[in-house]
Specification:
Elements (H helix, E strand, L loop, with lengths): L4 E6 L3 E7 L2 H6 L7 E3 L2 H10 L4 E5 L1 H12 L3 E4 L6 H12 L3 E2 L11 E7 L5 E6 L13 H5 L1 E7 L6 H16 L3 E5 L3 H18 L2 E5 H8 L4 H11 L2 E5 L5 E4 L4 E4 L13 H14 L4 H15 L11 H7 L1
Parallel strand pairs: 1-5, 1-9, 2-7, 3-8, 5-6, 9-10, 10-11, 11-12
Antiparallel strand pairs: 2-4, 7-8, 12-13, 13-14
Helix pairs in contact: 3-10, 3-12, 7-8, 8-9, 10-11
Length: about 325
């Protein structure tokens, strides 16, 4: 059906609504800076009405990673559920415009297309309020077997791992990928997700995942340990490759045999940290699926993360392929 793809992402198909605000806005609405909380449609409408001037763009963690890989020149696909409404059409347009294969049919009934209301404070921290809507109903029937078999890596978004049908979708996709001789990657997404699904995530990583992406807070939550070295030692026993981002400290790549420190790439400015982890995964997976050594994969991840935090929004605004050529 397609040429061999580098990565197929499976995740929440979300439209991001981004606005700048001060800390008192977070306090007023009971938000914890730098975290994600789930909200219902009524709360989503209330927040939107009070957010002021906004930027609207397609998002979703795995979809952002897919867009980043495509910006490097990689061949990508995406599986996620939208509704047949205006926001669903916008998401479909945006993900296909970057060159990704997106064949999941829209739902014709049920909840509206998901949206994430993102508040960016002057310190560039992003606080997310997510109405999952249609995307939470993704199930095993939505998994395109041919698309999964065509990819070198299937990338799973931890945010989606909540309802039983989504869990079944992850397990089906993982089985298909491994049967095809491909790899499975997982992003833990947020410590909120880890705290909700710690045991399930541990089992998923142990039995189904070859490549794990996380940040320091997520790893601490996964192993219930504030000692970073202890968490790294646990990771070495759990999965073949793990990449742990550490903000300005860069990242650490962990395998059973070694631990590799990777410096953060310099950013021209820090405007909005939305999507930094997603784009790190994009650079890393682009390198990995092109046979680059792990050190290079980490540097590509750092390059992509630095590019995305220099502007508002979670997807690259300039070609990562061109940026790499200039590096």
């Amino acid at each position: 059906m397609t040429d061999s793809l580098h990565v197929v992402g499976i995740g929440n198909a979300i439209v991001d609504v981004i606005a700048s605000a001060h800390d008192d806005f977070l306090t007023k609405h009971g938000m914890v800076k730098g975290t994600m909380q789930l909200i219902d449609e009524t709360k989503a409408e209330q927040l939107y009405a009070e957010m002021g001037s906004t930027i609207v763009t397609s998002g979703g963690s795995a979809a952002n990673t897919v867009a980043g890989i495509a910006s490097f020149g990689g061949r990508t696909g995406f599986i996620g559920r939208v509704r047949d409404d205006a926001l669903g059409a916008e998401f479909r347009h945006d993900i296909t415009a970057v060159g990704a294969h997106f064949t999941t049919p829209p739902a014709t009934q049920g909840p509206a297309t998901a949206r994430c209301l993102i508040v960016v404070t002057p310190d560039a921290q992003r606080t997310m309020n997510t109405y999952l809507g249609a995307c939470a109903d993704l199930g095993p029937e939505d998994i395109d077997a041919d698309l999964i078999r065509s990819a070198r890596v299937t990338y799973l978004e931890g945010y989606l791992y909540d309802r039983e049908p989504a869990k079944e979708a992850f397990h089906r996709a993982s089985a298909l990928a491994h049967e095809a001789g491909a790899k499975v990657a997982l992003s833990l997404s947020d410590s909120f997700c880890v705290n909700r699904h710690r045991d399930a995530f541990l089992a998923l990583v142990d039995h189904h995942v070859d490549i794990l992406f996380a940040n320091e807070a997520e790893i601490a939550a996964l192993f219930e340990s504030s000692d970073f070295d202890t968490s790294i030692a646990r990771l070495r026993e759990l999965t073949a490759i793990a990449a742990v981002t550490r903000d300005v400290k860069g990242s650490v790549i962990v395998t059973p045999d070694r631990v590799i420190d990777v410096a953060a790439a310099p950013a021209a400015q820090v405007v909005d940290t939305t999507g930094a982890g997603d784009l790190y995964a994009a650079g890393f997976l682009f390198g990995l699926t092109n046979g680059e050594p792990l050190e290079t994969c980490g540097r590509l991840g750092s390059l992509a993360a630095a590019a995305v935090i220099s502007h508002v929004g979670a997807r690259p605004q300039t070609s990562l392929r061109e940026l790499l050529a200039q590096a």
